[in-house]
Write a structure and sequence with these properties.
179 residues, alpha+beta, Arc Repressor Mutant, subunit A, three-stranded antiparallel beta sheet, 3 helices, 21% strand, globular
């Protein structure tokens, strides 16, 4: 399964697999415990395929960060996200030497490592770009009011707000393009 169907839902732990769109939102399944959850359109949701990390030059898609971790660990799990701040920063520096230390916080590094380990544990570790990204298959999530990872940006290069006070009042919407 590709990252286009993996979600991070603000206020809910772990990652979720997108199962189906409903009239009022969508149905998602937790990768941690397999429980299904109905997600309202007003909840803050981010597709992992739309998240990127700030570097000193550009934003690097999360998919590429996961690939670099996978290469470093030979397909195995990364270090624990519960390691010390220094160990996490050192590890992330090995993965992405030019990440922007002013915009990427330790909490962001923890989240990326935790997500990688969860995906790797569930054998969802195909981080290659999808071959067929036709509009008929695309799912899009509108810019959320806040993002669970502060230093992440959307593909358009716009920084997503790190708190509700900084965010806009746009509602989250999930739209499946007509086939």
């Amino acid at each position: 399964m590709s990252l286009e169907k993996i979600l991070s839902i603000s206020g809910k732990p772990g990652l979720y697999r997108l199962l189906a769109q409903t009239r009022t939102g969508f149905l998602a399944e937790s990768l941690i415990d397999g429980k299904k959850a109905s997600v309202n359109l007003r909840q803050n949701v981010s597709l992992l395929s739309e998240i990127a990390i700030y570097t000193l030059k550009e934003e690097v898609p999360l998919r590429e960060i996961f690939k670099k971790i996978q290469e470093k660990e030979n397909g195995g799990p990364a270090i624990s996200h519960k390691e010390s701040k220094e160990k996490l920063e050192e590890y992330f520096f090995e993965i992405l030497p030019d990440y922007d230390e002013d915009k990427v916080y330790v909490s962001d590094i923890k989240k990326v490592i935790q997500w990688y380990n969860l995906l790797q544990e569930k054998k969802l570790d195909d981080f290659s770009a999808p071959e067929n990204t036709s509009e008929s298959e695309a799912l899009k999530v509108a810019a959320p009011q806040k993002n669970p990872v502060k230093a992440l940006v959307d593909k358009g290069g716009n920084q997503k707000a790190s708190s509700a006070k900084k965010g806009n009042s746009a509602k989250n919407t999930v739209a499946r393009k007509a086939q």
